[in-house]
Design goal:
Blueprint lengths: L2 E7 L3 E7 L19 H17 L6 E5 L5 H8 L4 E6 L4 H10 L6 E5 L7 H6 L2 E7 L8 H11 E12 L4 H10 L3 E9 L14 E8 L13 E3 L4
Parallel strand pairs: 3-4, 3-6, 4-5, 6-7, 8-10
Antiparallel strand pairs: 1-2, 7-9, 8-9
Amino acid sequence: MVGAREIEIPGGHNLTIHELDNVYDSLTGRALTGSWLWDSALVLSHWMASSAHLHFPLRGTSVLELGAGTGLPSLTAALLGAARVVLTDVGPILPGLAKNVEANGLGNRVEVRELVWGSVDEDLTQLGRFDLVLMSDVFIDPGEMPALAETLETVCREGTRIWAAGEVRTGTGECLSELVNRGFTVDEVLSQPSAAPSTSQGDDDSGTFAVYNLVLPRADAPRNSPPTIKSKTLT
């Protein structure tokens, strides 16, 4: 157990986030770093509470987080009035997510579910389609993007907002280009240095964080069009 952190959310709110250091992949034995709180989740949570909700009010909405880790962005959405919030990740991460839901007294509106990107099963279809999908630190491995795209296409409907935050790394552009090649529109809506003490590790970390707004492919959109990633203000 790493311990608990009190995270201040703009608007006078606080969330308790427990981080775990004893969560491992059962096949490889490697530590699952999703059980730690990373800066990109802090950036996304702060942006949601300070400005994004003014453009897209969260009260009464349904929210899904993919690769939720500690669940900070989704828990922030619940504080901002979302009516139904679903946190998803791989199995070993779920006990930590459940602990954070319980620690913040949000169990009446927040549920925790296992979800593996690219899986198409009854459990996934029963989740339904959401008003908002949240992601942080998912643009790392371009090879995972086809599975992520399939999942997004399953849980989103026309008009669903998709907000993703991450540290800008060498592979970030390649990951985003994979999604654009599948017909997604990607708009960068925020770029900033992290405001939090960095938990990032590795030579590939830039210290610059971005938030992206993704839009589902149109039904008539051609695949494999030239990648275009825009920078603009969220509207």
